Amino acid sequence: MANLARNAVTLAGGDRDVPPNSAPVETELKLLAPPGTLDAIRGSPAVLQSARNKGTIRRLEATYYDTADHQLFGAGLSLRVRRSGKHFTQTIKRLSAKNPLERDEWEAPVEEQAPNLGALPTGEIDGIFSRIGASDLAPVFVTRVRRHAIALDVPDGEIEIAFDDGMIEAGEQRESLSEIELELKHGKAAVLYRFGLDLMDVSPLCLETQSKSSRGYALALNLRASAVKAGTSSVCREDTVDEGIAKLLSGCQQQILANLCAAQSGREPEGIHQLRVALRRLRTALYLIRRDLKSPLLQALDADARRFAQRLGPARNWDVFVNETLPTIEKADLSPIAFSALREASEPFREKGHHAVRESLGDPQTNRFLLRLGLAIEQRGWRNDIASESLAILAEPMTKFASRALDGLEHKALERGRKFSHLHPQERHKLRITLKKLRYAAEFFLPLYADQGAANKYLKQLSRLQDILGEANDIITSRALLSDVSQSSQHPAVHRAIGAVIGWQGHVALAGANRMKRRWRKFKRTTPFWTR
C-alpha cells in the first residue's frame, strides 16, 4: 500500500534546531542489527569512546491506536501511548511537510495507557482530529522493548544512541526487534551518517527504512510495502548549481530509500524495478555533475550505485519475463502450447535472482554506500572534492548548467542514432541508455523552463521511442533467459513453449521495425524545449 511506503522512511536530514512556530522534528537514523549482537556493539570502542556515561536501561511498552478503518495510518500519522515504569507518554508522529525523510513529533505525559487527545494540540497537527475522538480509537498493535539509551558526544554534535531489543505484537502475530536508533540532539544530520559508518566497522548493520509503527501496521494488517515512483523535481530557477546538486541527489536518495523495503520483501516486483530506476536516476545525476566537476567522491558513489544496480538486474529480467512477457503471449491462445511448464521451469531462476537482491540489500558494502550517499548530500561533499578552478561553477545559475547538460545528452543521442536503420543491437542498446539519461535529465530540470507544453511534447516523443526500444531490448534479454531454461530442462513441453516464445517475439520484432523508425524520426523532428 502507498501509505506503508510513504510512512516507511525514518532516516532524516537537516538540522535538529527547530524554527519558532513549527512542529518539533525528530531526526533519526535506524540500523538493523543481527540478533544477539547489540551487546557487542554497545561495548565497542566506537560507542564507549563517545559515551558520557553508562546510560539508562528501560523497559518500554507502547500501544499504537487507530480508528477501525485506520484513518490515522491513511493520513500518514501514528499515535501511541508508551509506558515506562509508572509513567505514560502519548506521542503523535507524521512525515514532515518539508522533507519526507523527517518526522514531526508531538509528545505529552498522560495519566494512563489510553489516548488523551486533549493533551496535545491536535487541531494544529491534522484536521483529522476534528472528525475523530478518543472513543473512536482502539489498539492496533503493541511494541515491547528493552532499551539501553546512551548520550554520545561526537565531533560537531550530540547523539542519543538507543539499543532496542524486543518484539512487535499484533494479535497472534509476532515480529522481533533488534535495532539501533541514532537520534540527533544537537548538530546536523551528517553526524548521524558518520557515526553510522563507524558502527559499520563493528558489525554488519543494515539501514532500516521502516519505523516501528510502519512495521506494526504491516504486521497487523498483512500489508506489503509498495513501490514508490520518483517525485517531482524540486529544483527552481533561483537555484545555484551547488543548491541544485543537493536537490537532485536528495531526490534520488529519497526514492532509493523508499523502495528498499518493497525490493526486500520479494512480494512486490515493482519494488525492484523502482529501486533500479532510482539508482539509474542517481547515476544520471552523478554523470551530469561529473561532466563539469571532476569529483573522486561522486565517482566512487557512481561505482557503488552501478554495482548495486547490477545485482538487481537478473531478478528484474525474470520478473518481466514471467509477469509480463509470458502473459502477453498466452493471450494469443497458441494451443496446445503449455506455457505453464515454461513458467514453472523459470521459477528457480527467478527465485535465485530475488535471493541475490536480498543478499545485496544486506551486504555491508551496499549499506555503506547508502550511508556515504547521505553523508555526501548533508556535507555537500563535492565542494571540497573538486579542483579550485571548478568552484566557480557551483555559483552559476542552475538554468545554465541544465541547458548545457541537456544539450550534451541530446547531441550524444543524435550521434548514437545516426544511420538508425542499420544499427546493430548493441549500438541500439547504447542509444537506449543515452535516451534514458536524457529523459531523466529532462525530468530533473523540467521546473526550470516556462513552456511546459513544449516540454511535455518533447517528453512524450522521447518516452514513446524509449518504449519501443525497450520492447526490442526485452526480446534480446528473453533469448538469454530462454537459453538458461533450455539448458536446465529436458521436458518436451518446456522446449515447445520456448520455441513458441522465440517465434512470437521474432514476429513482434519484424512488425515493430518500421514503427521504431517512425518514432525515431518523430523524436528527431521534435524541438528541444530548453532551446525555445
Structural notes for this entry:
By secondary structure, this protein is an alpha+beta fold. It starts with a helix and ends in a 7-residue tail after the last helix. Helices cover 53% and strands 17% of the residues. The radius of gyration is 26 Å and the shape is globular. The protein has a 10-stranded antiparallel sheet with strand order 1-6-5-4-3-7-8-9-2-10. The chain has helices at residues 2-8, 38-42, 45-48, 71-74, 122-125, 190-200, 212-221, 241-265, 269-292, 296-330, 339-362, 364-379, 391-394, 398-416, 425-445, 452-488, 492-525; strands spanning 25-26, 28-32, 56-66, 77-84, 87-95, 103-110, 138-154, 157-170, 173-187, 206-208. The longest helix has 37 residues, at 452-488.
Task: Explain briefly what this protein structure is.
With 532 residues, the chain is α+β, with helices and mostly antiparallel strands.
**Order of strands across the widest beta sheet?**
1-6-5-4-3-7-8-9-2-10
Percent strand: 15-25%
Main beta-sheet strand count, sense and barrel state? 10 strands, antiparallel
Oligomer type? single chain
Number of helices: 17
Structural class: alpha+beta
- Rg from C-alpha positions? 26 Å
Total DSSP E strands? 10
**Low-confidence runs of at least 5 consecutive residues:** 1-21
The topology string of helices and strands comes to: HEEHHEHEEEHEEEHEHHHHHHHHHHH
Distance between the termini: 41 Å
Shape: globular
Overall pLDDT level: 92
Share in helix:
40-55%
